[in-house]
Design goal:
The protein is of the alpha/beta class. It folds into two domains: about 1-110 and about 230-300, FAD/NAD(P)-binding domain; about 120-225, 3-Layer(bba) Sandwich (FAD/NAD(P)-binding domain). The chain has eight helices and 17 strands. The chain has helices at about 10-20, 35-40, 55-70, 130-135, 150-160, 180-185, 235-240, 280-300, and strands spanning about 1-5, 30, 75, 80-85, 90-95, 100-105, 110, 130, 145-150, 165-170, 190-195, 195-200, 210-215, 220, 225, 230-235, 265. The strands form four sheets. Strands 1, 2, 3, 4, 5, 6 and 17 form a seven-stranded mixed β-sheet that branches. The chain has a five-stranded parallel β-sheet with strand order 8-15-9-10-11. Strand 10, helix 6 (about 180-185) and strand 11 form a beta-alpha-beta unit. The longest helix is centred in the C-terminal third of the chain and has 24 residues, at about 280-300. It is elongated, with a radius of gyration of 21 Å. The relative contact order is 0.17.
Length: about 300
Amino acid sequence: MNDCIIVGGGIAGLQAAIQLGRYSAYDILVIDKGEGRSTLCRNYPNILGFPEGISGPELRSRGRKQAEAVGVHFVEDTIEQAQHQEDSFVLTGKSGREYQGRTILLATGLTDRYPDIPGLVPTLGRSVYVCPDCDGYEVQNRQTVVLGAGNAGANMAILLSERTEDITYINHEKSQVDESLRSQLKEKGIVYAEKAVKEVLCKQDGIIQGVLLEDGEKIEAERGFIAFGGNKVHSELAVQLGAELEHNHHVKADPRSKMTNVPNVWVAGDLGVHSELTTVAMGDGVTAAVWIHKALKSMNENK
């Protein structure tokens, strides 16, 4: 039996694994399916110690090696079922394999919803972004295009107008935009286009140059944001274990310990309720790990 099973090998899960491994007292297993936001991000420019930035895949690779160096084990699988059995938890993977742990940390994150537009993926996290808190700085006084849908895209464009006066919002899905938001777009001088994007034009290094619309029109851009709404929060396992959710499907947790309402089940990263910054996910992972350590130590003392 594992002392702790961490589901999700992204930034939050890896940071928790490193912290738990450094206690040199527990059997820690990370189960990861190799997906998630951090596998797509080409550059994180706001992390301490990396002034030039670091890509998600590179950060994950370094994090895994660092965790393995302190005895953490990894397995590739997709957990589909989770249940509580007396004093432990049993997780069942897509592989059919079962995993048993005394404590569980869920770091399954979320998946951004965006259409399959040619040229978009190579720009993500390099010159096209999803989080204004993380990367609003990157569009400062730059020619910026927001690719989105309905109110979600309109709200993003309005928010970014604090950073630059040169914004075009392309409502790719041509979905409804409230009149109040249309008025704000107009007031702030944001160009609005209700057209599908045929292709994102970019250089080989992932720097966006503009977009090609369905009617052949080209719109130049130096930077971009996506905001389509309807992101998928991967809270299914939390629900199976009885954890409470917020209205937006993120998992509620104690702000101090990151433990859910279910004893010995913690959450960290984008699965929880926070601003979705990578640096916050790191903090969540460490915080959860510290409290998991406290719980495991107490269990061992009370045997």
